[in-house]
Each structure stands twice: as structure tokens, then as C-alpha cells.
Fold each of these.
Amino acid sequence: MQVDPQTLMILTAVGIAVLVGLFALLSSQKTRTEQAVRLQQLTDAAQSLANTQNAMAGRMEQSQSDTNSRLEALQKRMGDSLHEQTERTGQTLKVLHERLAVIDSAQKNITDLSQQMVSLHDILSNKQARGAFGEIQLNDLVTAALPKSAYTFQATLSNGKRADCMLDLPNPPGPIVIDSKFPLESYEQLRNAETDADKVQAGRAFGASVIKHVKDISERYIIQGETAESALMFLPSEAVYAELHANFRNVVEEGFKRRVWIVSPTTLMATLNTVRAILRDVHMREQAHVIQAEIGKLLEDLGRLDQRVDKLQTHFDQATRDIRDIRISTDKVTNRGAKIDALQLGDVDEVTELLPGTKAAE
């Protein structure tokens, strides 16, 4: 007969228990006492172990609770941080988008400016257009600095020459002519020269071009008895003006000899401001006699005013004297009224005092 393993285990356990019971019965009293003590010790140890286990379970539970709280707080902080970071990232992306829009606009403006620069270069490559450019710039500077009565554009002189602008100044110095010149081609050749020989050749061509303009202005626009003894040559480019004064001193001195002063937009504006101050001074001198006449009339009015103040003071003094006399008469009348009010009907002596002609009445 085959025995079930589980049943075999149960029977084995029962047998062991029976043997233990028999061993316990057969053991001596001393052994039972020791076993009881040991059993009590084991019970106490088991109770202590249970208490320790309970304490450890409580600590584990508290630690688990603290861990869960910390994890929740950490999760909340991480969520808030992620939210703030998301908002900051959104704002940064927004600002970045705006800056990109500004950059796109600036890029568009740069593109437009490049096209305009190309157009300006095309304009300046034509001599007639270049001359018109210089005349327009001269027009803008003069109209911005001087009144309309102080200048004339395209003025025709007695020799039939027409000047770009003529400043109407009184003698001396007289009308001054300003003529616009722009030697751009020779300046471009000088700037683009690479070898020393090319630079020397381009420099000579540039100096000769400017000197030719100086001679033309001196011969055409300086007329004895009609214009001033000098004229202005306007260069509408600060770069050309700086190159001329930095490296071509002989050309500038040639202009000095022929009384042609070379000016740039900046120096021309300073010259025009000086001209405006001169015109203001001339206008003040022209109006000096009017100012003197008005000052004379003002002095006459002050004299009449002083006389009238004296007369008024005399009237005030007379009025003061009249008021003083009236006050004296009023005091006398008041005193006489007081005496009459105090008069007793039968008092002949007091009546006699009031009668006219008596000493008391006087």
C-alpha cells in the first residue's frame, strides 16, 4: 500500500511528538525545572523579539511614510520646476522669435540698402547725374542754414557763366559763388590702384583733375567789381576732401593762390553758419539808426513823464494844504458847536463871549 507523502509527514511529526513526550516524562524533576527556565527564557526572548519586530515595523512604517512624503514633496518641486522651466522656455522662445523678426527686418533693410547703394553707384557713375547729386546736396545745405534772401541758385553772371549758388553778401566781401565739383572717377582710380606705379599715376590724374576745377572756378566766377575776390569749390564727399588735404597739399595750396577755397559738406556748413552771423550783424547795423531814433523818442517820453509827475506832485502838495486848512476850520466849527451846546440861557457873560467883535469871540 502506497502512503501519501503528506500523511507520512504527519505520522512522522506525531511520532516525534510522542517521543518528546515520553522523553519529557522519563526526564528527572531537575531537567524539567531547567527546561521550564529555558522555556521561560525562550518565551521572554520571543516576546522581546516580537517587541523589537513591532518597533522595527513601526519604524519601517514611519520611514516609509517619511519617504513617501519626501517623494511627494520632491515630485511637487520637480513639477513646479518643470512648469516654471516650461514658462521660461516659452518666454525665451517668444523673445527669440521677436528678435528673429527684428533680424529679418534688419536683413531686409540691409538688402534694400544694398540695392540703394548699387543704385547710388550707378547714379554717380554718370557725370551729369553726379553733378546733379552735388547740386542737390549743396541746395539742401544752403537752404537749411541761410534765409531765402541770402542766396541765389543758378545765378547768371555778367560773363554769361551760371553758378550753382551765389551768396548775396554786402560789400565787403560781396557776393560769393559756390560751385559743386565731384572728381569721382580719378578718386576711384586712386583708391583702386594696387601697384606703386599705378598709385603715382592715379595720384597725378586726381591732382590734375582737382586743379583744373580750381582754375575753372577762378576764371569763371571771380569777377572784379561784381563778385567777391574769392570763391568756394564744394566737394560733396568727405572722403575725397580728406584724401585731398591729407596727401595733396600742393593742390590745396594752388587753390589758396587762386583764392578758391575747397570745402566739404561739414566745412561748408560751418562756413554758412559764419555767413549767417555776418548777415545778422549787417542787418543789426542797418537798423542801428532806427534803434537810435526810437531811443531818442523814448528819452523825450521820459522827459514828458517827469514833467507830468512834477505837476502831479504839485497838485498833491496843494491838496494836502487844502485838507489841512479844512481840518483846522472843522476843528473850529466843532469847538464852537460844543460851546453853543454848553451855553446856559441867562448867562450874559458867555453870550457876550460868542458875540462877534468881542475879544472872547475873537
Note: The first strand starts at residue 151 and ends at 156.
Amino acid sequence: MVASDHLATKREGIPMVGERKRIGLREVRALRPGETTWDTAVIGFGARRQKSEAVTYFVKYRTAKSRQRWHTIGRHGVLTPDQARDKARSILGAVVDGADPAAEKRAGRNAKTVAELCDLYFADAEAGRLLTRRKLPKKPSTLETDRGRIARHIKPQLGSMPVASVMREDVERFMHAVAEGKTAARIKTGKCGLARVRGGKGTATRTIGLLGAIFGYAVRHRMRADNPAHGIILFATGRRERRLSDDEYAFLGAAVRQSEAAGIWPAAVGAARFLALTGWRKGEALALKWSDLDLARRTARLPDTKTGLSVRPLSHAAIDVLRGLPQMTGELVFPATRGNGRMTGLPKLWARIAKLGKLPLDVTLHVLRHSFASLAADLGYSEPTIAALVGHQGHSVTSRYVHSADAVLLAAADAVADRTAELMGDARPETDVVRLRGRA
């Protein structure tokens, strides 16, 4: 062995077992059980006979972070020594460019199919190891939505495909299949539950977003080199600009009053009225705790909303709703019908409320939010003011230090809520005006 070969062998950390030779058929046949031979032409390339008659070709290398790796190329008989040597050269060339074939192969064994990839992704997400854009773990409600999209759309269409073989064309076909309702089904969710999977363009677009995140996870873990969901032309979001008309506001007011008389769960009726008067998101109201409220300052401080910490002004009308709720022992303002947990049945209860008032089927709880914002715009309030009222993401660094709503926002909240109550037929009594004695 020449000095340069000796130094290279020492530098690579390759053990010197006898004399280095150019591996050929003679050298392979001469190997004894458990013996290894190293190649002189390609440093790091070797062959080893197992305890059986099987001989395996391998390559040893160091990554860019100086981590030592052993990568199996294949078995003798399937590969000739020359073919294995050529593969070793190709692998070492990829290592120079920053690749880590051994890690990629190990990751590939962990997720051979898209279904297995989804399971790995969801396990990490559930454990809090995958962060959102706000650098926080996904919320339980988001995880539940992801679980449904994976189980009802992604796995049935793509689950059996190898991770590395999925192409952009496959993702496009998947998107159109979901949009056309090919994943539609009725699925049991427990003893009495039933989920109706309809599909549609909106579902397809949102599911492609999740699929892109899952393949991004695969790229980061070296299961494949690219993300096949990138560059897909998605369907238009189809944002609903639905808002309540004046007549529908009147129907809403009648529906709420009739619901109170009909004995529908008071917390659900109160939540519906509260959402109409505040423009909050449904989840924000259902997660609201009494400890989040400062009724003296007419402020709600929500620690964990879709946009992070949010400070909201409370109108007098909204406070009247809160004070009119039945006394409960739990910490939630709008609790479930049983126990002290969150109210998960509000959509069904809302359907009963809306039916009593003969509201159209497309009037959802989110329509109340959009109607509140639209009504604020009708009254002439600016976009920043409306954003502060309904909790859209703000850009002020100082907003995180604000503990109570200012007088301007409180006045705006009162104006919009009073107009809402007026349209619902629930106008609050006007405050008595005390006239000051004039100068003599």
C-alpha cells in the first residue's frame, strides 16, 4: 500500500484488514465467513462475506457533518464487482454534493407508502414536533380535521402508492377526484355518530394544502427529493360573501327569542346571540372562560386564538348577554349540555335555532361574523377598527402589551352591537340623559 492510500484509509476511518486489493471475482470468492476486503480503486468501497455464503457490497463514507455512515449497495450475484464499484462511485459523488444515502434509505424504510408517511407525519404533529407558521404546535381541532382528511381522502386515493413514486400528475388526479366527489362516503364515527364525506372543490383545495405539508415533511426527512404538491393549480377558494339582510336579522331575532321559549340549551342560545353581537369566531366563544373577562373594563383577553393573543372590546349589549346566562359551576362561559367541557354540539343546536326562525340553510354561525363586519363597514368604520373588533391579525408590536380596550373601540363595539340588536328587534333601552343646569 502506498503512503497516499494509507493516509486516505486512516482519514476515512476504514479498518485495514490485510492488503487492499482491487475487488474482483477472485477476491470475492476468497473471502472467509465474517471477512471484509477493501477496494484500491474506490476508497470506501468494500465487500464482506456474512456468516453464510452471502457476500454483500457496501460503501463507507462521512457526511458533511462528519458523521460516519455504512451504506449497503447490494449482494454479489445480483451485482458483479464492477457494477458494485460503479454504484459506489455514484454514491460517493452524491455525498460530495451533500447527500446522505444511508439516511435516505433508512427513512425510506420507515415510510414506504403514502399511508405510512401520513402516519409518521400525524404522529409527529400529535406529539407537538411540527410547528405552524406561528411557531406553535397544531391545535387539537386542527389535528382532528387533518385526521379526517387523511383517513377519508388521502389514504383511499394515494395510500398504497410508494412515497418516492408519487408525481405531480398523481396529485392533480387526486385533487380532481376529491373535487368530483369520488371520495364521498358515509362513515360511522362511534356508536351513534355518522360522518358524511362529500368532497367538493373547497375540500380538494384544503386537502392539497395538507398533502403539501405531508410531502414537505417527507423532503425534510430525506424520503424523497421534491414535493409533488408544489405548483399545483388549485381551485378558487370560493369565499362566501354572505351577509344577513335586514329581514334576515329580524328572523334571527325571532329565532333566538323562540329558542329561549322552546327550552333549547340556554348556553347555545346565548352563544348564538353573543356571536351576532360581537362577530367572534365560533371557537373563540366556545373556549371563552370567565377568567378571560374583565367586565368592569368591558374587555375580553383571549390567550389563544387563530391569530394568537387577542384583546377584544365588549359592547354593553354583549355584556348583557353574559350577565343573562344561567349560573354554572364550570369555568367556561358557554359550557356543554353535560359536564363542564366545551360545547361540541353547537352546530346542531344552531340548526334548531335557525329552523325556528325560518332562516335560510346557508345562514351559518360564520355568516353572523361576516354580517357583523359588514355592518361595521356600513356604519363607516375603517378596516383597522373592524379588524380589532373581530380579531383579525394585527401588525402592531405593542398590541401584545395592551390589557384593555380603548374608548374608541368600545364606542365602535357599542355602535355595531346596538345596530345589530335593533335589526334583531332587541334594541337596548336608551340611557337616560341627564341635562346639566345651564348658566343663569
Note: The chain is about 45% helix and 10% strand.
Amino acid sequence: MRVDARELFRHVSAEKSALYRGIMDAFAAAKRQFRLHLRPDEVFAEAEWTGCLPKIEEVQSALAQLTEWGNLESQPDTARVASLSDFYRARFLYRLSEGGEAVESALSVFVQALKRRAELQTVALEDIASQLQVLRTLAQEPVPDPAKVHEILRDLVRVFEGLADNAQAFMASIGRSIEFQQTDANAIIAYKKRLIDYLDRFIGDLVSRSGSIARHILALDPLIQPLLRQTSQRQARDAAPGEGNEQTDALATAQQAWRERWKGLRGWFVSTGHDPPQGEVLRSKARSAIPHLLGAIAALNERRSGRSDRSADFRTLAVWFADCEDEAQAHRLARAAFALNPARHFLVDADPQELPASTPWGDAPPIRIHPRLREYGEVAPRGPLPRVRDRRGERELLAGQLAEEDREVEEARARMANGEAKRLSDLGRLDPHGFRLFLNLLGETLPAQANPDEAVERQTGDGLLRVRLEPLGADTNAEIVTDTGIFAGRDHVLTVTSTEAT
């Protein structure tokens, strides 16, 4: 009976899929136990049911439905007939159909592929090296044993395919594992240590064994073709007879397959043309996984250090508003929190009106915004471009201000850096430039002082001044008057010398 392949998978997504899968698992287990048939009561007793236990009538109905879909085959059960009424009663034996076996095999492979944990197989590298060594020994014999050569090549290809498949799957899964664990800091830190140790062990083994494997392959290059032909002839003898020349076709197919396998193995460890060997590519990818992981950790730390909770910010802001003494203070807090200060540098009107910054928003005249500004974020003015403004006056004003400020700084430095020892209490009043220079000198000198009673002498960071600071008695006091207040503390003797003058 020819069955539509789509019907064979209907039980997976049907309404009672759990019941159907329990029955099909029971039949798959019976096939592994070499049992040919199952009765409904045996299915009911041996199946592993998920959820509530079904009734025997539900199991019989599900068996009939699976038979209709083509997953099972049924035949009358006459072994338990004890009377004529039992003979006319519908009793069936069920077994997996050919399509049902194919579906179970496909689902089993699918589940295994999902559950497989890809890994970098260092043992496979050792097996490949040992198999190649044995193959070199067989190739040097006058008449190699075809059975041994076939066995070695078959094991070699099986180990190599497992190594290549697992390596490819492992490198593809590293990124997904990092992305899945980025939400948990402890998990990704533990995963980082295990992954780095794992990659370090595999990369070291790959580097140490790739050279010997490549030497074996290069030594086998002039001897491998007769061995591959011998293995292909032994494999082609099992070709089933037919109308055509199956032996010749099977031999050609086998030879082509073995050549491709050897070419793939050779390309993994020996460079071909301008392309590096696949083993080098795998090693570079494995090494690049470590910076990828470190980048994920850095991003995680950045998110943790710069974490922003909008709801918590608003709750804190609400508490601040509740603590305001009057409405004026609340308005100032609102302007600072929501950036409600006027942007007078943003010119959107041809004739902007100069208003003081203290003008309330409600009292200010409206500003007409061009629709293009709302849509595109910019306004292309019509007509000719405006003339270039002459800013020589502004530049001269800025240059004059900078020159005046430099002159005042140099004067303050010349007054202080005269090489004379002065007490801080004798400095008197300092202008803003002199006080700023004084604070810079203290900031560069005091960190080098081991204890408060120790004199310290050092050169400034720019190399222009040499400062000596000698503390006086602990009961002394010095006060320096500035425009912003009085600077007071323990009195010291300050000596500032210009290195240029020296």
C-alpha cells in the first residue's frame, strides 16, 4: 500500500500527539528487542505515558488511527481465539510499517542531533596520527594486505569525519553559548575559565600533533593511490548484480569517493595552494573565541556598571520634588531634571528675538518651525546662500583675552618662582591665577610627602619649576586670602625655583 509521506508525520502535531508518541516509542523499543508484533494490551502495559494514564479503548482507537496514517500495519490476531464469538471479534496484531520505521529513525537522528554536545576531540588527533603511521607501514610492504588497508582507511575516515563535524559544530555553538549566558555574570565567568582551559588544551594538542600528521600525509602521497585503488576493488566486489556492468560502476564510484576523502584529510593538515590548512583555520577560530568571550564579559561589566533603571530614577526624582520647600525650588528642579533651559544658540527663525535666559516659557513669544525641520531635522533655506560672516573681530578679541591670561599666569609664576623661601603666612592675598598656580604646586608636592613633618622637594610635571615644601611646627597656622575665600592650614616654608633660570 502506497502511503503519502506527509501522513506519516501527522501524529507528531495531532491533537493527541503525546498518546501517539507513547505508542510509537513502545513499538520502536519492541523493534530493538527483536519483537515482531504487539497487542493493544501489551502496548498499554509497556508504553511510557506522559500525563494521565489513558484507557485501553483510547489506545485501540489510536492504534487504528496510526494504521490508517501508515505508521503501523495490522493483521488479525487468531492466537487467543477460544470460542467462535472470539473468532468474529476484531482482534489485531500491530507492527511498525516500512514508513513508520523510517519516521522513527528520522526522529531519533533529529533528537540526537539536538542533544549532541559538540566538542574538540584531542583523542581523535592521536588516533589519526597512529592510523597514518600504521598505513605507512602497510604501504611499505611488498604486497599490502587489502583487508588491513581497508580497515585502516575506514577507521581513519570515521575518526576524521567525527573530528571535523564536532569541530565545526563546536565553533558554531560558542557564540550561542556566550549570548545565552550574558545575562548571568557568575555563569559567564565560570564558563570563561572552563572554555579558556579547554581551548588552550586543544590548541596545544593541535599544534603539537599537526606537524607529525602532515609529515605522515606527505610521506603517503606517492603511495596512497594504489592503496585507494586496492580498497575500492575490495569494496566493489559486494555490488549487487543487475542489468548493467555494476562492478565497473561501483569501482569508479568507490575510487572517486576515496580520493575525495583523502583530499579532505590532506587539506586539513597540509596547505593546498594559497589556502591555509583547515587545521590552521580551526586553530585561529578557537583562538578568536577567547577575545569574543572577553568582549562579552567587558560588555556585561559595562552594563552592570552603567545600569540605568528608569522607574527607580523617577521614584527618586519624585522624592526630591516632595522635599522641595516651595514652588520656585520645584521649578528649578524640573528645569534641571528635564533640560528645560532655553537653547538660544539654536537659531530656527530668520529674525530671532533676543530674550534673557530668565524669561518663562509661557511668557516667551512663539517660534515658527518650518515643516521640513520637523520631517527631516534640517531646513534648506531658499534663495542664495548667506554671506560668509567676517569674524576677524571676534578672533582678535579671543586672541587678546588669551594673551592677557597668559601674561597674568606668567606674572604669577614669576612672582612665586623667584627662588626665595617664603612662609605661606607671608604670601598675603593671591589673585585667581596666583592661587590656581599655588594649588597646582601643592597638588604635585604633597602626594610625595610620607608624613606631615617631612620636608619634600620635587619637580613639577612640566619640568619648569622645582618646589620645596618644608613644614613648620604643628601649632603654626597660615591663612591665604583669595577672591573666593580664605585658604587656611598648617604653615610651611615654600621655595619655588624656575629650572629655566637655573
Note: The radius of gyration is 44 Å.
Amino acid sequence: MNRARTKNTNLRRILAVLLLMLTPLALRDRQALGQSLKPAVLSLSSPKEISAAPLLFARYLGYFKDEGIDAKLVVMSSDIAMKGLLTGDVDFASSVSSVVKAAALGVPVKTVINYFNGSFFYLVSKPEFTRIEQLRNKVIAISRYGSATDLDARAAFRHFGIDPGKDITILAVGGGTARIAGLISGRFDATILNVLERIAAEKAGMRALLLTGQYVKQPVGGLGTSVQQLSERRDVLRRSLKATYRTFAVMRSDRAKTKAFLVDALDVKPEHADGIYEDMMKVFLPGGKIDLKDLAETYADARKSAPKPVQIPLAGLVDYSLLDEIQSSLK
């Protein structure tokens, strides 16, 4: 009995000594792991933005840490993000339309991955309308002239044989909240709203007629960076980009996990998750590259206000070399 007790006591002492010896090693390993994470600053316009889903999904799944990146997702306006790219304070900007427009004017920035080639905007009307054709000679609200809402509205009406310059009146009224209020009050007959605004409008009795993003191809969501960063911080950019690109396979093949992300991270109501997932897949770019011709309208819109823009080909707006390296490594 005493021998067994002595043996157990000695065993506990040995284990205690081992734990004391191993604890500093474990702490050093943990510190080393933390120190090995490379910081990367990625800008986005909203913390719960559907168009930035792959970026937010990568954080949700822990892919940035897997790739050795301490990702700092910072909400900022697109103009500040663009300045940050040029100063080196921002590694990636998620507003790729702004990156395309800047590159079209000769600013040394490039799009390096694209998420979608269409928006998540909807044409939402007063409840008495059931088809877009019924909006002929009616008033349609957008955020501002020349915006993505304007582009989507005009493309959708043209698709259904309605001339946006003659057959409807387009009214610029500002943000989504103002457009919802104006629609409910009857100030106009229909408006363009994003997916979450559409849900709010539907709760107020309005009717979503169609997803306008499927009728016009344009860069929506993705990552852009500076030419300088591509050269000087290439490894950090590659690892950050890989973390984001890894979510593409999950989005394509695991509907349940993607829906869980939408609900948990983007506050999408469970009853809306299926519809939003399906809309995402309608404009999703599984290869991460957009057809150059789908940049043409954004490119032209940027250059029309410049007095003497430098000659930049459409191919000069993108640099998919990092993406190519990542895709080769994952085969």
C-alpha cells in the first residue's frame, strides 16, 4: 500500500517537473507562431458586405492564419483605400470598380482577383407592379447618376426593350434608406436596392421584381493592389490572396457551410440564406478572373471625365500573375 502510494507520488512529481520543463517551450512556440504571422491590411466598404463575401469568408474560416497572415480588415471609403494603396498603408482594396477606374487613368494599381461579374442589386417596386414592363413611363430611383445603381437600372430596362432615355424617368435620390422611404411614400414607382435593402423593403410590402446584376457585366467585389506592393510585398500578397481564393471551392461545393457563414457573419436571416446564396452563384466567378470586355463600361466611365487620359489597354487594368501562381500550386 505504502509502496503504491510512494510510486504514485513519485510519478506525480515527475509529471510536474516535465510540465515545468515543457511550459516555457510551449510558450516560446506560441510566441514564435504569433511572430510568424505577417500583417496585411485589407480595406472594405462595409463589415457585412455581400460583394466582399470571399474575403469575409476567409476570415470566418481561419484561412488567413492558415496562410501565416494577420489580416486586418478595415472599413474605409474607396477614395481613402486608393490613397492607402499608393502610400503602402493598405495592401488590398476590395472596391475593384474604384481600382479599375484608377488604373484606367494611369494610376499604378491593378486588380488581382475578381469575385463577381455582376451586382447584387434588385429592381424593387410598389406592390401593384408585377412585371418590369409595367414600369414604362414611370419614375425609377437610383443613388446617383453614373453609379452602379444607374448602370444596373439602365441595363435591366434595355434588356426588356425599354429605352431608359425615353421610356422611364430616372431620379437620383441618394442612399438606400432614402430610396426605400421614397418608394414606400410613393415619391417614385421603383428603385434599385442591394440585397439587404431589398429585404427591408419587402417587409414594408414592396415587391422585388428581379435581380438586375444578371443583366450587366461589371467588376463587383475582388481585390486590387498597387504595382509597388506587387513587387515589394509579393509573398504577403500571395498568401493573403490564397486565403481568399481558397473560399471559392467552399462556396461552389458546400452550400450549407456558405449559408452558415452568411447567417453567422453577415447577419442574414436563415430564411433568406438560400435566396442570397443562389443570387451570389448567378454572378460568381469561380476562376477569379473577369472577362476583359466586362471592364469596358467601367473603363469608359472613368475616362470620359478626364481631359487627356493616357492610353491604357484593358489588359493593363489587371495583373493575375499571383492568382496564376496560386492556382498552379493548388492543382
Note: The first helix runs from residue 2 to 36.
